[in-house]
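Job type: complex structure
Entries:
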Amino acid sequence: MTAVWRAIGVGLIALGVLAATLAVLGFDPVAGLAALGRNSVGSWYAWSSATLVRAIPLIIIGLGLGLAFRAGAFNIGAEGQFAAGAIAATGTAMVMGSWPGPVSWVATAAVSTVAGALWVLIPVVLKLRLGVLEVISTLLLNFVAEQMVSWMVQGPLQEPQGIYPQSAPIPADVRLPVLAGTRLHLGVVWVILLGTVLWIVIGRTRWGFRLRAVGEAPVAASVAGRIPVGGVQAAALLLSGGLAGLAGGLEVTGVTYSLYQNLSPGYGFTAIAVALIARLHPLGIIVAGVGFGALEAGASGMQREAGIPAVAVNVVQATIIIVALLALRKRRVAAVAEA
Amino acid sequence: MRITLLLLLVTLVACGRARPAGDGAGGETFRVGLITPGSVADAAWNEGAYRGLMAIRDSLGVEVSHVEARTPGEQEEALRAYAAQRYQLVFGHGFEFQQPAERISAEWPNTVFIVTSGERVQGNVAPLVFRIEEGTYLAGLVAGGLSKTGKIGFVGGIELPPIRRGYEGWVNGARRMNPGIETRLTYLNTFDDAAAGREAALAMIRVGVDMLHHNADAAGVGLFQAAKEQPGVFVFGANADQSRLAPDRVVGSAIIDLPRAFLTVAREVKDGRFSPKVESFGLAGGVIRYLANPSLDSLLPGTVRTALAAAADSIAAGTLLPVPR
């Protein structure tokens, strides 16, 4: 539970920093924060149509990255895996046409998960066979994925008129059900499901133990525990890619209903911060994801209602990450001192 | 510690609730929202919209609000947020707002959604269409008359219908002065990357292009940087008067007077005279114009000047189609 409380604590520090930033920039901090609060957590509408909708991809990607980071594998390519999942879901949706809802929801989710995992398979193979650092290879594949989306929306998946760089809207039956009067889609069920499953897997299963062992002491795990380090890391990377792909699929089937070039406002990168702040704990990641979702939804509200540019919030996000990393560092230092 | 944090959180939520969202008053105040797909500091497309919003605020004395939303998800979120707060008029500044606006318009019948460069009317969603080719034709005409190398170049952001039509107008205008003119065309696939715009311009300059035009918003700013570095190269601004970006290199700009167009529509909606239709603006109404940079006026030979005036008159009168349909 400490992870959850830490996430909240970091959030409060962030709000303080935000207030100070606003004051320095010459805006009214009270009006700004009030607008932020109203449009992120101040009403059911804000929760269900902005905060949680933005939190869903952050959490799902964050859960995957949490796994990979725990195993000591640094997947920086979630943005690209998200795009791969989005492309796959769009393509699948077009093919399926009028399959019954639940079948198509599961099918698009499955295909986009596989696509995300396949996108990270290249770095995994490069790592295992040639020792190429996955930090570099996953990062670089983001750019490839971005170009691939560009090509898709101007080529194979472009809308039938052939005018706009976007796909045709996906068939109505494939679209995820939305809670009446809100934008909250079925993806929220995935969040709860995945959060719970991963929490149990990491904390209570043999595989979870191996994962933690590999991440914390790879040499010891390999020598004393006879754990195949490469294999565990590969599995964690593939899972993290799969979850990022799933998030991309859910975004298309639950939010935008078409494939676009600029589908993600950097979810794949923000999710890294989400995972780190939560110290890779699945439940903490859910809280941190909601926190970042709220912050971004609130930022948009601040601009609408108080005329404060969204850049102010970018400053705060950066601050949060630094604060969180410092908190992490302090712990490490303490641990070393004890030893 | 935990209790303190919890209390702080509760206070924060309460703070958020204490202030009503501003929709309690019902339809009393007229409110207008603007959503731009990019930064309003682009000196062109988005800045024009923002100035339009300010013009609405100042001329009609109404409440206005602006937000930048770059991704499709954020754009729909913003459209809904304004509608949910009972804004009477919301501008989605780009074709990309057409689909989300159509999706949500049925739920919010009391809000008029205007999609700039949109496609079609549906319910309370109506497009503003700008016949930008009428302005770029005139820019092209001047370029064709001035080019010493006989080569002109155009840099587009993303290949969208209005941008393509603007390019075609530019080429047809240049051909009027020089039927054998050579043209170059590049799409950057971005509206943000000024460095890419500069590179594209430099590549064209290397093959002899001496007259440049663009429609790439913030990325187009790179063209002006490139022209400043290369002697004998001139640029034509797009969407707004861009002569200040390179005062001795910008011959003129094909402008869209977005404030005038926005104000026209806002007035209609406020007075209850609005009925959803395709609002098309061109040279005739003064929303599209070719604006020469006065400090470079001496460059233009008399023949170009006469041809420019004649073409402008014919386009406004409807006897000259810059881009034949």
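Summary: Chain A touches chain B through 48 residues (CB under 8 Å). The radius of gyration of chain A is 20 Å.
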